[in-house]
Structures are given as structure tokens and as C-alpha cells.
Amino acid sequence: MSRPLVVVYRSVTGAEESYDAIRSAGCKLIIDPIDVPGVVLSAAARRADALVGATFRGGIMDADWLDRFPRLRLIAKYTIGFDDVDLAAATARGIAVTHCPTEANWGGVAEGTMAMLLTALKRIRERDRAVRTGGWRDPGLEGRYVGARSDGYSGLVIGIVGLGRVGRRLAALLRPWRARVLACDPYVSAARFAQAGVQRCDLDSLLRRCDVVTLHCALTPETRGMIDERAIALMKPGALLVNTARGAIVDLAAVLAALATGELAQAALDVFPEEPPPDVALLRELGDKLLLSPHMVAANEGGTLLAAVPWVSESVIDALSGRFPERVVNPAVEVAWLERFADIPLLASASRAAGSPG
Fold first, then answer.
1. According to DSSP H, which parts of 13-102 are helical?
2. Which has the closest alpha carbon to 32: 57, 9, 4?
């Protein structure tokens, strides 16, 4: 039996030991990175049985791209996000797609969001710069008090769009601040809202009522461009918009225009429709109205994606042994996948990779 081929299209720091484990299980492994849109994997790599990597920088793994891999049974991603894969196309071809929703990742996003939110509201950058340039206690450096107070101040209203792992963790982080928190997520039960201690509302109502709107939904056809001119027009003139989800959820041109006119007071962005953003000069023109981060909100010491490494190894070993893997984001593929691959194990050993949490 020839060895199954695992291709790493984008590696992550700290994954080398897991690659040794995958090889020890009986696989051939090659690293063939893609960093430029439009560039495809080598001809040798197109014989892959499994693709492994972080965010795909070659564009979208769409139907035409997937058709280059006739043997492919698995795309295993180190990331929690999977919007760089056309799930419908993968499902139609019997390809399972797995992701890694590790707490190191989604917890890091929630903590980073809280940091960006407070940096903007409390004017941390501005105060630091003022002192460094000889300034002191300028009224323009006043921040905004977040929570309710006993003197009758009701506090800010914070709106969370998307009550998944990140949104729920952010709600928990906000609880000691005594902020009023609204949330919008049409795919989450009422019980989940109650457990998170947030008030459920629709998106338009959230936009109208909140002083801070923070985005934590997945990028889907429904959410792409969701925060556009119409949505921004519904928001309070003094509102802060935070996006640490996916850049394409926001119409960036509309946000920048609203900041320039004062229709929107502040924005904090970790993600952009195109990364890195091409027109940096335009971003600089908005000064402190705009807090920017290079898609690193979850990056912390120890490696944001390091915890995902054993999960990916497990998915690869399972799939190549004829077992339907865990953490599949296109579960509708299971019947077709089992029909296609369950009776064709490619590994003599059914053992999982070393270090797997399963």
C-alpha cells in the first residue's frame, strides 16, 4: 500500500513535532506553502489525500480549486475560521473540512476585543502620547465610564453581534463592569442568551441602542458586508464599532466615510477585507478615530494556534484511517464521505497522532 500524502499548505509555528507524528503513522508529508493569491499547489501536491494549514492565502478553496485534488478526503485547518473554504463545493465532492475552536484562539479574541474596546473608550493611546509630548490633563483626554453607577449613571450599552464562543466569553468579561449588554444572533436559543446574562434583540435594534457595537459572527453570504451605509446610519453618532471577526463583514469604505464625517465616532479594527490593507495613508488620515491591529487580536505568548496542532494531527490520522473525523464544519458530508472512504483506509495503523487530546 502506497503511503497517503499529507500536504501542508500553510504551516504554523510549533507544528514540527506533529509532522513527525504524522510521518510515523505512515504518511508522506510535504510542505508546499501558498502566500500569493492565484498560485496553486505543485503538481505533486495535487495528489494529496489531506490538506493541512492555517488561513489560506491563495484566495478561496472553491469548486475549481478543489477539482485539482481528485484524491482529497480532508482539509484540516488550524484556525477556528473556515470562510476560506467553499463548504458547499467541498461537501459536493465528499471532502470533510475540520477546524480547531481552541480556547487559546477564541478566548484570545475575546480578551483582545476587551483590550481594544477599553483602549478606545479610555483614550489610552491619546493619554500616552500627550504625556510623551509634554501634555497634561487635557479635558479632551477624558474617557467614557463603562458601567452603571450608584449615582444614577446608567452606563454604556454594549452590543454583541454573534453569541458564539467569543461573544459569550466577552459577555462574561463585561459582567464585572456592570455594563448593559445586548446581543443579536438568530441561530442561538433563548436559553443561551439567558445563560450569558445578555438581552436578546434584533440587529437593527442593537445598532440603534448601543454605544459600542462589537462583531463576533462568522463570515457567511448573509453577514458579508452586513455593516454597510444603512447599518451605520442606524448607529448612535457617538458609537464605537469594533471588528475582530472577519474584515469582509464590514464595508470598510462606508466605515471610513462615516468616521470622516463624524457620523461614527470611533472604530477599532483587527481585520480588513484585504490584508494587509492596501491604502494605509487613508487609514492614517483618521487619526485617533481609528484603532488598528494587524489581525493579531488573539496572538499571545505560547502561540495562538499551538493548541490546535494535536487536533489537526488527530483529524488527519482519523480521516486517513477511514474514520470520520471530529470538529467537521460541513457535517452534511458524512454520508457521502463514509461511502467514499470508510472502506478504504490508507493507513495500516489506526492509532492517532501523538499528543492528540482525543
1. 16-24, 63-66, 87-92
2. 9
Residues 200 and 267 in one domain: yes
Q: pLDDT band at residue 304, thresholds of 50, 70 and 90?
A: confident
Q: Is residue 49 part of a domain?
A: yes
Active site residue 295: yes
State whether 317 and 247 are in the same domain.
no
Tell me whether residue 275 is one of the annotated catalytic residues: yes
Report the predicted TM-score, pTM, of the whole model to 2 decimal places: 0.89
Strand partners, 249: none
Which of the following is catalytic: 295, 323, 334, 340?
A: 295
Q: pLDDT of 238-273, one tens digit each? A: 999 999 999 999 999 999 999 999 999 999 999 999
Residue 216 annotated in active site: no
Determine the structural domain holding residue 199 and report its residue range.
106-292
Q: Give domain status of residue 57, yes or no.
A: yes
Domain final position from 232, 259, 292: 292
- 24 and 113 in a single domain? The answer is no
Q: Which three cell numbers stand for residue 100?
A: 480547531
Query: Residues 164, 77: one domain?
Result: no
Catalytic choice (200, 246, 327, 352): 246
Q: How far apart are the first and last CA of the chain?
A: 27
Tens-place pLDDT, residues 80-94: 999 999 999 999 999
Maximum pairwise Cα distance, the chain: 76
Marked catalytic residue, from 142, 275, 285, 339:
275
pLDDT band at 32 (very low <50, low <70, confident <90, very high): confident
User: Rounded to whole angstroms, how far apart are CA atoms 75 and 48?
Assistant: 10
pLDDT of 353 reads 45
